[in-house]
Amino acid sequence: MNNITTSDELMKKIKTVRREMIATGTAKGLNHIETIQYSQMLDQLMNQFQSSSKF
After folding, report:
1. pLDDT at position 1, please?
2. Nearest 5 degrees, angle CA 13-CA 3-CA 23?
3. What Å distances lie between residue 11 and 3, 14, 23, 41, CA to CA?
4. Would you give the DSSP letter of residue 33?
5. Who wins on pLDDT, 2 or 47?
6. Using one digit for the tens of pLDDT, what is the confidence trace for 12-47?
7. Which residues contact 37 (CB under 8 A, 6 or more apart)?
């Protein structure tokens, strides 16, 4: 995954991935591999955001 430098960029990416995950989950189901991949990506981004906001 690319390092995103600012918290604004990171928050924008989180919102985009969340929308994609919801759309995919609605269209293909929550257990579809694509939905799960978006969910995992979202988890990583949120962890990155939390880590960066501690400083």
Report:
1. 47
2. 25
3. 13, 5, 18, 13
4. H
5. 47
6. 999 999 999 999 999 999 999 999 999 999 999 999
7. none
Distance CA 53, CA 31 (A): 31
Residue 44 to residues 27, 36, 40, Cα–Cα distance (Å) = 23, 12, 6
Spans of all domains in the chain: 7-53
Which single residue is written with the structure tokens 């293909």? 28
- 29 backbone φψ class: left, alpha, beta (φ>0; ψ -120 to 50): left
For residue 47, give the amino acid letter: N
